Amino acid sequence: MAGNPAARLGPAFALLGPTASGKSAVALKLAERLPIEIVSVDSALVYRGMDIGTAKPGAAERSRVPHHLIDLVDPDQSYSTGRWRSDAIRATVQVLERGRVPLLVGGTMLYYRALVAGLDVLPQADPDLRRELDAQAARRGWPALHAELEKVDPKSAHRIAPKDAQRIQRALEVWRLTGKPLSSLQGKSSQDLPFRLKAFALVPSDREALSRRIEERFDAMLRAGLVEEVRSLRGRFELTAGMASMRCVGYRQAWDFLEGRIGEKEMRDKALAATRQLAKRQLTWLRSFPDLPRLEPDSAFQRLLVLLDAAEIERS
């Protein structure tokens, strides 16, 4: 570490947590007191034009506090975990070199895992195979493909929900391309970071309160025009329901509503159920990182302020 210029500049911090747990609010509040720049750890925020359904920071927030890794690609383009890792490392080092405090904030746990553990030795995405899997899912349903995955890769199937289309597709893609289970290939690589990273998890103990926050936030998104946002994106880009951008929670249900497959009430109910399932999966991921200090949302600001301020004083 002594020979690493970026490490000598000071540590970076990460604030992880389930959706609607208040991560962004805590980060913005910290940025009022400390020279923080926020690096997004959110796979939905990379898409331009997807603002309402991702709870993307608005222009006012981004003018007050620099945000990185937001609005990188159009929703009809792909953006990989490997690309995010490279972009995140570069952005974090640049923040450190400016003498400021990088705070990585988000809930895409796969991104965080890739950042700290390195990238697994996995095959690149195969568009033709993905189209074939999408067609099979359209005929049989994703739960049927999940059952197929359970036969060839029970460890991955255990971690993946029967309707988690994106992760089922990737696990089956890896199996068909390599003949090896995804679970046997993960964790085979480790790459050191060019900076020290101290991470914290925002974990609400009151799950009912989190559920209410999810409901309130989604209803606010609907009032703000989420359906119209999806309608506009469909008009501007050549999108399909199978694209990663349109698989995001909220967008997937709005897509089905616009296709006439479900009504407005069912769209809302399905989106809320999917968001709660997402939060549950995020909490499961967080438990898999045993060394992460857990913080309650109500007390997180004060605890983090003390820790980050002490690091800033030490560095200066």
Q: Would you spell out the secondary-structure blueprint of this structure?
A:
Elements: H1 5-9, E1 12-16, H2 23-31, E2 36-41, H3 59-64, E3 67-68, H4 81-97, E4 101-106, H5 109-117, H6 127-140, H7 142-152, H8 154-159, H9 165-178, H10 182-185, E5 197-202, H11 207-224, H12 226-236, H13 251-258, H14 264-287, E6 294-295, H15 297-315
Parallel strand pairs: 1-4, 1-5, 2-3, 2-4, 5-6
Structure description:
- With 316 residues, the chain is α/β, with parallel strands linked by helices.
- The chain folds into two domains: 5-119 and 189-315, P-loop containing nucleotide triphosphate hydrolases (Rossmann fold, 3-Layer(aba) Sandwich), CATH 3.40.50; 127-185, Histone, subunit A (Orthogonal Bundle), CATH 1.10.20.140.
- The protein is built from 15 helices and six strands.
- It has a six-stranded parallel sheet, with helices on both faces.
- Strand 2 (36-41), helix 3 and strand 3 form a beta-alpha-beta unit.
- 36% of the residues are buried.
C-alpha Rg, in Å?
20 Å
The helix/strand class is alpha/beta
Quaternary organization: single chain
**How far apart lie the N and C ends?**
18 Å
CATH homologous superfamily descriptor of the largest domain: P-loop containing nucleotide triphosphate hydrolases
Q: What is the string of SSEs from the N terminus onward?
A: HEHEHEHEHHHHHHEHHHHEH
* CATH third-level topology of the largest domain: Rossmann fold
Tally of alpha and pi helices: 15
Number of strands: 6
State the helical fraction.
55-70%
Could you tell me the strand content as a percent range?
A: 5-15%
Which whole number gives the mean pLDDT?
Answer: 91
Q: What CATH first level of the largest domain would be assigned?
A: Alpha Beta
The major beta sheet can be summarized as: 6 strands, parallel
Order of strands, main sheet, comes to 3-2-4-1-5-6
